[in-house]
Amino acid sequence: MLTDQGPQFTSDLMQSLCQKVQVEHLVTSAYHPQTNGLCERFNGTLKQMLRTFVESQGRDWERYLPHLLFAYREVPQESTGFSPFELLYGQRVRGPLALMREGWEGKLGSPKTSVVEYVLKFRERMQAIMGEVYDNLKAAQSKQKQWYDRGARERVFEVGQKVLVLIPTRQNKLQAAWEGPFTILQRMNDVNYVVALDERGKRNKVYHINMIKAYYERDPAVLTVCSLPGDEPETDPLLDLLAAARAPDDLDAAQINADLSESQRGQLSRTLAPYRSIFMGKPGRTSLVAHHVDTGDHHPLRQAACRVSLEVKADIRREIEEMLTLGVIR
């Protein structure tokens, strides 16, 4: 028996009952509904049917539950190829349309089959159906496994390793956040791990590997001291690109080796003069290479403006004007 980790299933009374009737009780991984995919998929489908039905029929949805379940049970499942009704009773469901068709064709009448004959035919039909179901399930599972393995990567955690766990927040169970670090206590199999949620190891829970990721501790970093604090609080000014661009060329301020003669200095200056632009401190752009990004027919992305303080707004305006003047943006 496969259930979730609810207290109604993990209580001592439930464990004793399973032991008495010799039932092996399995529990799903925490916050991993894929473990019990058939049940969770049915719940999602039934909720969607109820949501659609309530919007059109009103709020007395509980009166129409049998009709919704009937509609679900008569539709063939993609993996098995048969409807749930046919797998349970060995014959297709006789809905209103089927009964109307049998009435038109004159097939309705008193049954003449004995009970023994019916049971034998029922058993033969169920054996044939189950053989087809196993083949369809095997093919469907193989196809689903191929699609899943395309993005799956094998990961292994060691006992005692620090990890982060994706746990729903206390404010909203529909939102999850990485919490931790916690410690791996036991590796149950390839995908399930027992994680200690406290330092003493009294709160343990089984989590799927998709809900776990490794935790890396950061080394303590020492920041470089750029300036000594003064008597008056000052803000660190931003880099003034425009002032650097208006400064004299670096070639004029270059220091030439004093051991060179006057003729050698003049020859070096004449050699460097044609390449004066290379030694300039003004940021610019090259015309030797052009790179084009083809965005196709996609429209530009528009983002909402964010509010900033007056001081930051002045710095942003100054930087934009500097880059416009330098010609690096437009």
TrEMBL record:
Q: Which domain of life is it from?
A: Eukaryota
Pfam families referenced in this protein's UniProt entry, alphabetically:
Integrase_p58_C
Q: What is this protein called?
A: Integrase catalytic domain-containing protein
The molecular function GO annotations come to: nucleic acid binding
**PANTHER family listed in its UniProt record:** INTEGRASE CATALYTIC DOMAIN-CONTAINING PROTEIN, PROTEIN CBG26694
Give the Integrase catalytic domain ranges: 1-92
Q: Which GO terms describe its biological process?
A: DNA integration
Q: Which InterPro entries match?
A: Integrase_cat-core (IPR001584), Integrase_p58-like_C (IPR054465), Retrovirus_Pol_polyprotein (IPR050951), RNaseH-like_sf (IPR012337), RNaseH_sf (IPR036397)
